[in-house]
């Protein structure tokens, strides 16, 4: 899910949507991956015109493309890069009712962990240590990690609590690009990823797989094609009514059920050994995957 607002950087996304032809392309790609020639034929357009529309959709972050050898030729294959666009308009409420705490947490800034192979982590420039050796999760350079993955276990992050005396949290939102971790990559590799806040299990989201079809839009060029490429942007929200993932209720856990600490918030992403589907976990930072962000943590009053 692309979370956009009225900032100017989102203009390419809005421009990509402002076309009946491009909306038709999105509908076709929702059914299956297609090449440019197939799309042009389906919509009765010339190849150059379709290429222009594909470029607009790519610039808007709505589709991804890759060159594939097939049937003796090279084809530009197109697929969806996101499952939707959510637009947030400016808030006209008084300033004191806007977010009162916001933090962007790099994926390497975990404070506790327990990981089991397959596992590893990397900065935007290089792999940290070696594949499948949990010892490197203690490497000081892990603070610069932009991607990490493990077959089972957890990573935990502590975030300062800057609420003032008398202030009360009404809603907490965690946004992260996340997916499974298969040996290599696998489109179908389900994993039950557990989300915790201050030690309380908020809910479980089942990741469908570990995608390696096409490259992540932000993934560095040195990262080879057989490794994790991108995940799904998940938005976990907890308020006075319950806990939601992408707006879908996942549990009855309310904010009042979470013990509060005066000093910090603790969030944990885990795949326990006793989960029904133990398919690992991959976290993507701002330099990997499809979404230019680290782990976003917001507290609303």
Automatic annotation (TrEMBL):
Residues 2-96 form the HTH arsR-type domain. It comes from the Bacteria. The keyword DNA-binding applies. GO terms for molecular function: DNA binding; DNA-binding transcription factor activity. SUPFAM superfamilies: Winged helix' DNA-binding domain (SSF46785). The keyword DNA-binding applies. InterPro entries: ArsR-like_HTH (IPR011991), HTH_ArsR_DNA-bd_dom (IPR001845), WH-like_DNA-bd_sf (IPR036388), WH_DNA-bd_sf (IPR036390). It holds the Pfam family HTH_20. Signal peptide: none annotated. Keywords: DNA-binding. This is Helix-turn-helix domain-containing protein. It comes from Cohnella xylanilytica.
